[in-house]
C-alpha cells in the first residue's frame, strides 16, 4: 500500500483518481492548490508518490509553459526530506517545453489526461520497482498530447514539434539528459531534426547562457577538420596566416554539437577520443594544452555499431559518445504528427501574408499516404512549396501531386496509428475526436469559439466533449 498525494484544482478529477487509487488499496491525500500541496509536503504526512497537475490556480510564474505544478515540483526538489519523491506530472495541455522542463526537474513521468486504471497500475508498479532499485523493461505509453500554437511562436526558441507517443518519449529523454552534463548521442535519419533536438537539450540545460556551437563533420574537408575543431597557430600550415580559435574553445562553458559524427575520418577519431577523455585540446602547430569545459552532443544518421563492426569507427570512441543515446524516429513511424506538422509549416509559410491557407481533408489523406523519406525537413519544404503555388485558400490533393507515392500507398489504413483498427468503434471514434479537438484548440491558441467553428460543431457540443474527454 502506498500513500499518494493528488494535487489538482479540478475536484472531479481528484475525486475520480482518489477513488481509483483507493480501489487499488492505496491511501490518498488531496490538495487543490499549490499552497495546499506545499503545506502537505512540508508536513509529517507519509507520502510515497505525488500525482501533480501542471496548471495550478495559484502559480506565480509568468512562463506560460510552467504553471503552478512545475513550481511545486521545483520547490519540492529543494526539500531535503522530499527531494527524491517520485512525481508524476499530469496535464491536458502537454507541450515540448513543459515536458522537457518537467523531466529536467526530475519528474518520474509526464502524462496527459485522462489516464486509465491500467495505466495507473503499470505506472505505480514502475515507480515501486525503481524505488527498490530494480529495472522494469515495460514502458508507459502516454496518451497523445496537445500540439501548442506552434505557428504563433514559430521564430522563437527551437522546439521538437509533434504530439505522438514517440516524440513525447524523445522529449522526456531530452529533459532527463538536460539535468546532467553527460555526453549525448542522437541517432536518426536525415531530416528528423537532430540539430533541433540538440538545441532543445542545450536550452534546457544549465549551460543555456553559454554558446551552442554546431559543426558538421561531413561538410568540412578532412585536412581542415582538425584545425576547425582544435584551432591552429599562425604558420601551422600553408594558408594559416593568423591564429585561429577552434570550435572546442569557442564552445567553452557551453555545448558542442558534432553533427554526422559517423563521417569523422579515422585519424581524427583517436584525437577526439583523447579530448573527450582529458578535456584538453592542442591547437595544430602548438604544444600548448588548453583545458576546456564543454558538453558534447553528437549526432549521426549511420548505424555506428555496424560501422564499428566494419572497422570504420573506433569502438572506444563509440562507447565514449554513447553515454545517453536518443533515437529520433522517422516521420513515417509517427503518422499522428504529420497533419499537425503540415498545418504548422503552412502557417509559418503564411507569416506576413494576408492570405493564409488550410489543408483540406483529401490533402491530409495524401500526406498520410506519403512515405516522407526526407522526414520533417521534406514536409516543411513541401508546405512552403504548396503555399507558394496552391491557388485557393484550401490546399487540396491536386496541390500535392508532386509528392511521389510509395508502393502500397493506396492502402487507406497505412497512415493510421498502430492498433486503431483493432479498437471497438466507439473507442476509435473517441480517439479521433480527441485528436481533432486537441489540434483545433492548438491552432486557435485555446479559443474555443474558433475551435468549434473549425470543427463544424456548436460551442456547447465542444464544451460537452471537452468535459467528457478531460480536455477542459
Describe this structure as you would to a colleague.
- The chain is α/β, with parallel strands linked by helices.
- It has three domains: 3-175, Rossmann fold, CATH 3.40.50.2300; 180-328, Rossmann fold (3-Layer(aba) Sandwich); 334-469, Helicase, Ruva Protein, domain 3 (Orthogonal Bundle), CATH 1.10.8.60.
- The protein has 18 helices and 16 strands.
- A five-stranded parallel β-sheet has the order 2-1-3-4-5, with helices on both faces. Strands 7-10-13-6-14 form a five-stranded parallel β-sheet.
- The longest helix has 19 residues, at 425-443.
- It is globular and about 75 Å long.
- The two termini are 31 Å apart.
- Mean pLDDT is 82; it is low at 60-66, 133-155 and 406-414.
- It holds the Pfam family AAA_lid_14.
- It comes from Caballeronia sordidicola.
Portion of residues in helices? Answer: 40-55%
Number of spatially distinct domains = 3
CATH fold-level name of the largest domain:
Rossmann fold
First CA to last CA: what distance? 31 Å
Judging from the principal axes of the Cα atoms, what is the shape?
Answer: globular
Strand order of the largest sheet: 2-1-3-4-5
Average of per-residue pLDDT values: 82
CATH class of the largest domain: Alpha Beta
CATH superfamily of the largest domain: Response regulator
Secondary structural class: alpha/beta
Percent range for β-strand residues: 5-15%
Number of helices: 18
Q: Which stretches of 5+ consecutive residues score pLDDT under 50?
A: 60-66, 133-155, 406-414
> Any guess at the CATH architecture of the largest domain?
3-Layer(aba) Sandwich
How many E strands?
16
Biggest sheet architecture: 5 strands, parallel
**Gyration radius from CA atoms, angstroms:** 25 Å
Domain Sigma-54 factor interaction: 160-388
GO molecular function: ATP binding; sequence-specific DNA binding
Modified residues (4-aspartylphosphate): 53
Domain Response regulatory: 3-128
Amino acid at each position: 500500500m502506498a500513500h499518494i498525494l493528488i494535487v489538482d484544482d479540478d475536484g472531479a478529477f481528484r475525486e475520480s483518481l482518489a477513488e481509483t487509487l483507493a480501489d487499488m488499496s492505496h491511501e490518498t491525500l488531496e490538495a487543490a492548490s499549490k499552497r495546499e500541496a506545499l503545506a502537505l509536503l512540508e508536513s509529517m504526512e507519509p507520502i510515497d508518490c505525488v500525482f501533480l497537475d501542471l496548471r495550478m490556480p495559484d502559480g506565480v510564474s509568468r512562463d506560460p509553459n510552467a504553471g503552478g505544478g512545475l513550481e511545486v515540483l521545483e520547490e519540492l526538489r529543494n526539500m531535503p526530506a522530499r527531494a527524491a519523491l517520485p512525481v508524476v506530472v499530469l496535464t491536458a495541455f502537454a507541450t515540448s517545453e513543459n515536458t522537457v522542463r518537467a523531466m529536467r526537474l526530475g519528474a518520474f513521468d509526464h502524462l496527459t489526461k485522462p489516464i486509465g486504471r491500467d495505466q495507473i497500475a503499470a505506472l505505480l508498479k514502475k515507480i515501486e520497482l525503481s524505488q527498490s532499485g530494480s529495472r522494469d523493461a515495460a514502458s508507459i505509453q502516454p496518451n497523445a498530447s496537445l500540439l501548442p500554437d506552434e505557428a504563433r511562436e514559430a521564430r522563437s526558441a527551437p522546439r521538437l514539434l509533434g504530439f505522438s507517443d514517440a516524440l513525447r518519449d524523445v522529449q522526456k529523454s531530452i529533459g532527463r539528459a538536460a539535468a546532467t552534463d553527460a555526453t549525448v548521442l542522437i541517432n536518426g535519419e536525415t531530416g528528423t531534426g537532430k540539430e533541433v533536438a540538440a538545441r532543445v537539450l542545450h536550452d534546457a540545460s544549465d549551460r543555456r547562457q553559454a554558446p551552442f556551437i554546431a559543426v558538421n563533420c561531413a561538410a568540412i574537408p578532412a585536412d581542415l577538420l582538425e584545425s576547425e575543431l582544435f584551432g591552429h597557430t599562425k604558420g601551422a600550415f600553408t594558408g594559416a596566416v593568423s591564429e585561429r580559435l577552434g570550435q572546442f574553445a569557442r564552445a567553452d562553458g557551453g555545448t558542442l554539437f558534432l553533427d554526422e559524427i559517423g563521417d569523422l575520418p579515422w585519424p581524427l577519431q583517436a584525437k577526439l577520443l583523447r579530448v573527450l577523455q582529458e578535456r584538453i585540446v592542442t591547437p595544430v602547430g602548438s604544444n600548448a594544452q588548453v583545458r576546456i569545459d564543454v558538453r558534447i552532443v553528437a549526432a549521426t544518421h549511420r548505424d555506428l555499431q555496424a560501422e564499428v563492426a566494419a572497422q570504420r569507427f573506433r569502438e572506444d570512441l563509440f562507447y565514449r559518445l554513447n553515454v545517453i543515446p536518443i533515437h529520433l524516429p522517422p516521420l513515417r513511424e509517427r503518422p499522428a504528427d504529420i497533419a499537425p506538422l503540415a498545418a504548422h509549416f503552412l502557417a509559418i509559410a503564411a507569416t506576413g501574408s494576408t492570405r493564409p491557407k488550410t489543408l483540406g481533408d483529401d490533402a491530409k489523406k495524401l500526406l498520410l499516404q506519403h512515405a516522407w523519406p526526407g522526414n520533417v525537413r521534406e514536409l516543411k519544404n513541401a508546405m512552403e512549396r504548396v503555399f507558394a503555388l496552391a491557388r485557393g485558400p484550401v490546399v487540396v490533393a491536386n496541390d500535392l501531386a508532386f509528392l511521389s507515392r510509395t508502393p502500397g500507398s493506396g492502402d487507406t489504413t497505412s497512415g493510421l496509428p498502430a492498433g486503431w483498427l483493432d479498437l471497438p468503434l466507439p473507442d476509435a471514434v473517441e480517439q479521433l475526436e480527441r485528436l481533432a479537438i486537441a489540434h483545433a484548440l492548438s491552432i486557435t491558441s485555446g479559443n474555443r469559439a474558433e475551435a468549434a467553428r473549425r470543427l463544424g460543431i456548436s460551442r456547447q457540443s465542444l464544451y460537452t466533449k471537452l468535459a467528457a474527454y478531460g480536455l477542459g
